[in-house]
Amino acid sequence: MSSSEGPKVEFKIEESGRKLKKAEVDFMRLIEQQNLQRVQKLQRQRRNNKLTGIALGGTVLGIYLYSMFSVKQEKFLDDFEEPVKLEVENKALGMSASTKISKALTSTGIRLPPLPTIRDLVKLYQLRAIKQLSQNFLMDERLTDKIVRAAGNIRDHYVLEVGPGPGGITRSIIRQNPRHLVVVEKDRRFMPTMEMLAEVAQPFMRMDIVQGDILDYRIENAFPDCPQHDWMDRKRAPVHLIGNLPFAISTRLLINWLRDMSLRTGAWSYGRASLTLTFQKEVAERIVAPILSDQRCRLSVMNQIWSTPELRFEISGRAFVPKPEVDVGVVTIVPMQTPLTQVHFDTVEKVIRHIFSMRQKYCRRGVSNLYPPAVREELTELTFKRADVDPLARSFQLSVAECLRIVEAYDGLVREHPEIAGYDYRAPKMQKAVGQEEGDGQESETDR
Ligand SMILES: C[S@@+](CC[C@H](N)C(=O)[O-])C[C@H]1O[C@@H](n2cnc3c(N)ncnc32)[C@H](O)[C@@H]1O
């Protein structure tokens, strides 16, 4: 039966029964015809519904495929953008320049006016990364925001940024509206971009640009109007050091800052200032490593004597331009109200360095080098006895408390025998080791 004919309804009229009247038969035929029409109408509707469904499905699929294609196309264009043509005439960076304008805005904090993207700035100034300055730039606003968020509330606070480079983290800091931002950058090629940001930030806050080496910078002079905060106050001082650190000097910087923290100088002359810093991932893991961990080293114990370091999150090396060979860890370091020792930082540093100098050997080997050969054996034995520490333990098996008992025993012996204080078994080799640290762009094993 073809669908156009419709179903045939058959009436069986019984011979034996009463003959149907003509009117009845006509009526039945009429009903039959109406039924037939209704069925045909429903069939037409069903066909139309099917066609509409197919058309709608096709449109939705088309829209989906088109969106996927456009996103891909945009990404592709991002990677191969033409260099921007800017008219940099009078000002360091022409704000009137016909550059691709980024939306440097976020939902939180203050809204910055439209700015050229970091990528454009890097292209504009042909800022090729200098390896000796460990330059790896972060372009992703979500990541720079995340780093700044890890610092906690910085609104109305005092912030020092180390190595702002083209200014990704700087923008994220400005958006959080601190009271006073100081940026310290060694590479003068970034000064125009910093000046542009300072101009943009000017209505909201104070921003100072220092072109120089962070290793020489006196942070105690950075924030003249920051009041001193009581160290024992549960609330920390409103001072933050933030930075995507240059790898080549990050360990040295951290040890310098721990020294300042212990002596309450530099950034800690204002009170308990906190640090939010990036490190090569392995270094970040060492800073927070607990006892018995493979990563446990001098940096772990040194940090954990004066502060509570926390590895907040990791960033893949792929997020940086140019891409470093390593991933990165973001660490926050908050000074303890009551540090675990009162011994002077330099003594602590010296002893801890000796304890961890031979990681795979018994810790007594490293400690023995604190003493001149003539008294070495005798004083090493006395040190472990007074410290009540097993001299045959390996350094990574020692708790912070045990390390500090060795420090205190040594400190006591130095008081009894002042002539041993200046002894340094590595003295002739020291200069070479320090020279090697600079410029290789990576932390070396000796930095542990
Ligand atoms: C890893 S890059 C970070 C750049 C930028 N903050 C970012 O996240 O994209 C390190 C920055 O520190 C700067 N730098 C290197 N050594 C420095 C030093 N001794 N003092 C100050 N800045 C330094 C570099 O020029 C570079 O801009």
From TrEMBL:
<dbReference type="GO" id="GO:0034246">
    <property type="term" value="F:mitochondrial transcription factor activity"/>
</dbReference>
<dbReference type="GO" id="GO:0003723">
    <property type="term" value="F:RNA binding"/>
</dbReference>
<dbReference type="InterPro" id="IPR011530">
    <property type="entry name" value="rRNA_adenine_dimethylase"/>
</dbReference>
<dbReference type="InterPro" id="IPR020596">
    <property type="entry name" value="rRNA_Ade_Mease_Trfase_CS"/>
</dbReference>
<keyword id="KW-0812">Transmembrane</keyword>
<feature type="binding site">
    <location>
        <position position="244"/>
    </location>
    <ligand>
        <name>S-adenosyl-L-methionine</name>
    </ligand>
</feature>
<dbReference type="Pfam" id="PF09813">
    <property type="entry name" value="Coa3_cc"/>
</dbReference>
<dbReference type="InterPro" id="IPR018628">
    <property type="entry name" value="Coa3_CC"/>
</dbReference>
<keyword id="KW-0694">RNA-binding</keyword>
<dbReference type="InterPro" id="IPR029063">
    <property type="entry name" value="SAM-dependent_MTases_sf"/>
</dbReference>
<keyword id="KW-1133">Transmembrane helix</keyword>
<dbReference type="InterPro" id="IPR001737">
    <property type="entry name" value="KsgA/Erm"/>
</dbReference>
<dbReference type="GO" id="GO:0006391">
    <property type="term" value="P:transcription initiation at mitochondrial promoter"/>
</dbReference>
<dbReference type="InterPro" id="IPR020598">
    <property type="entry name" value="rRNA_Ade_methylase_Trfase_N"/>
</dbReference>
<dbReference type="GO" id="GO:0005759">
    <property type="term" value="C:mitochondrial matrix"/>
</dbReference>
<dbReference type="InterPro" id="IPR023165">
    <property type="entry name" value="rRNA_Ade_diMease-like_C"/>
</dbReference>
<keyword id="KW-0698">rRNA processing</keyword>
<dbReference type="Pfam" id="PF00398">
    <property type="entry name" value="RrnaAD"/>
</dbReference>
<keyword id="KW-0804">Transcription</keyword>
<dbReference type="GO" id="GO:0000179">
    <property type="term" value="F:rRNA (adenine-N6,N6-)-dimethyltransferase activity"/>
</dbReference>
<feature type="transmembrane region" description="Helical">
    <location>
        <begin position="51"/>
        <end position="69"/>
    </location>
</feature>
<keyword id="KW-0496">Mitochondrion</keyword>
<keyword id="KW-0808">Transferase</keyword>
<protein>
    <recommendedName>
        <fullName>rRNA adenine N(6)-methyltransferase</fullName>
        <ecNumber>2.1.1.-</ecNumber>
    </recommendedName>
</protein>
<keyword id="KW-0489">Methyltransferase</keyword>
<feature type="binding site">
    <location>
        <position position="213"/>
    </location>
    <ligand>
        <name>S-adenosyl-L-methionine</name>
    </ligand>
</feature>
<feature type="binding site">
    <location>
        <position position="138"/>
    </location>
    <ligand>
        <name>S-adenosyl-L-methionine</name>
    </ligand>
</feature>
<keyword id="KW-0472">Membrane</keyword>
<keyword id="KW-0809">Transit peptide</keyword>
<keyword id="KW-0805">Transcription regulation</keyword>
<feature type="binding site">
    <location>
        <position position="185"/>
    </location>
    <ligand>
        <name>S-adenosyl-L-methionine</name>
    </ligand>
</feature>
<feature type="domain" description="Ribosomal RNA adenine methylase transferase N-terminal">
    <location>
        <begin position="143"/>
        <end position="337"/>
    </location>
</feature>
<keyword id="KW-0949">S-adenosyl-L-methionine</keyword>
<feature type="binding site">
    <location>
        <position position="163"/>
    </location>
    <ligand>
        <name>S-adenosyl-L-methionine</name>
    </ligand>
</feature>
<comment type="similarity">
    <text>Belongs to the class I-like SAM-binding methyltransferase superfamily. rRNA adenine N(6)-methyltransferase family.</text>
</comment>
<feature type="binding site">
    <location>
        <position position="136"/>
    </location>
    <ligand>
        <name>S-adenosyl-L-methionine</name>
    </ligand>
</feature>
